[in-house]
Write a structure and sequence with these properties.
alpha/beta, Glutaredoxin, 4-stranded mixed sheet, 2 domains
């Protein structure tokens, strides 16, 4: 113990005045892609054709090395269980690394690197799931982690070809689920029903009694100290999409919370929509751990959307800034 302390003291004394330690990235998870994923030459025209002939659908799994959301989703839904069985029976799954350099031929013949295709598809989060129909058109795109129940909705929607007749949001709303516990009472939620003309930072949380993720969202995300600090800059409101009580949206339209969520095409709960200057800036309709969640808040309240073309550019600049300042970034829950 004394030797370690002495060594540490030498390092401190030897460091030049004003030297700053680089911050570290933590919370990443090393994972392995399932061996049953399709081995593809990444000419998606051929892959779509193969899937169609086998009466299957093609799914692209866009992922990032050490992405904790990718690791969790793979563990929960791609290894075993009902979702894994459905995927192996009805889908050809191809992995695409969002920072990869391999050439991908899209279904229309255009060629991209994996990284460029990610930008083209606006997949600004990992994992992103892209489901293609027999013509090579996108039947459904899901950006971000989905819990097993939510992923099952997507698999059934695509496998049954329900996308031919209705939106995914309408499909999810039509599926019956047992109701869970009543929405928890949170004093931090403002009781506001009229948002007409509101122009300051506004965060609206859409929940319902069938939300499998809501308890975790409150306990792990909303209650995190870093998130609480950023939330102080927002008017924070929760809307119950099971309620028939009308609210007034920012444009002055009267509608129920469920109608508002449907108009926004929100198929996931909890969904958080962030507004500023009277318009939507960012929506969070996936699971985000505390670092990414609080950075979405900062992006909106600090009006960084005026300086950066998208969240990816902001995220890269913010990450570099914090690490340079010697601040560690924790990607874990």
């Amino acid at each position: 113990m004394r030797l370690l302390a002495a060594a540490a003291l030498v390092l401190v004394l030897a460091a030049p005045a004003g030297a700053q330690t680089q911050g570290r990235l933590t919370g990443g998870i090393i994972y392995t892609l399932p061996d049953w994923f399709k081995a593809s030459l990444l000419d998606l025209r051929e892959d779509v054709d193969d899937a169609r002939k086998a009466n299957r659908h093609l799914m692209l799994f866009l992922h990032l090395d050490e992405c904790p959301y990718c690791a969790r989703m793979l563990k929960e839904s791609f290894v075993d269980g009902d979702n894994a069985r459905i995927l192996r029976a009805h889908f050809d799954v191809i992995a695409v690394n969002v920072r990869g350099a391999s050439e991908v031929t899209w279904t229309d013949g255009k060629k991209f690197t994996e990284r460029a295709l990610t930008r083209e598809l606006k997949a600004f989060g990992t994992p992103t799931l892209i489901f293609l129909d027999g013509k090579g058109d996108v039947a459904l795109k899901l950006v971000g982690y989905r819990d097993p129940a939510a992923l099952r909705d997507a698999l059934d929607y695509v496998q049954s070809a329900a996308y031919r007749s209705q939106t995914f949001t309408a499909y999810v709303a039509s599926r019956r689920r047992p109701e869970g516990a009543p929405l928890r009472d949170e004093p931090r939620f403002a009781r506001v029903t009229d948002f007409k003309g509101y122009r300051k930072p506004l965060a609206i949380v859409f929940e319902d009694r069938r939300c499998a993720e809501c308890a975790r969202f409150h306990e792990k995300t909303l209650d995190h100290p870093d998130v609480l600090a950023e939330l102080k800059k927002f008017l924070l409101v929760r809307l119950d999409t099971d309620s028939s009580a009308p609210v007034i949206d920012l444009d002055g339209k009267s509608l129920t919370p469920a109608q508002w969520a449907a108009a926004l095409d929100l198929s996931y709960r909890p969904a958080v929509v962030l507004y500023n200057e009277g318009r939507e800036i960012v929506r969070i309709d996936t699971r985000l751990y505390h670092y990414h969640f609080k950075e979405r808040l900062r992006y909106v309240s600090g009006e960084y959307y005026k300086r950066y073309a998208n969240l990816s550019q902001y995220g890269a600049a913010r990450r570099a800034e914090l690490l340079k300042q010697g601040i560690d970034i924790d990607y874990s829950e």
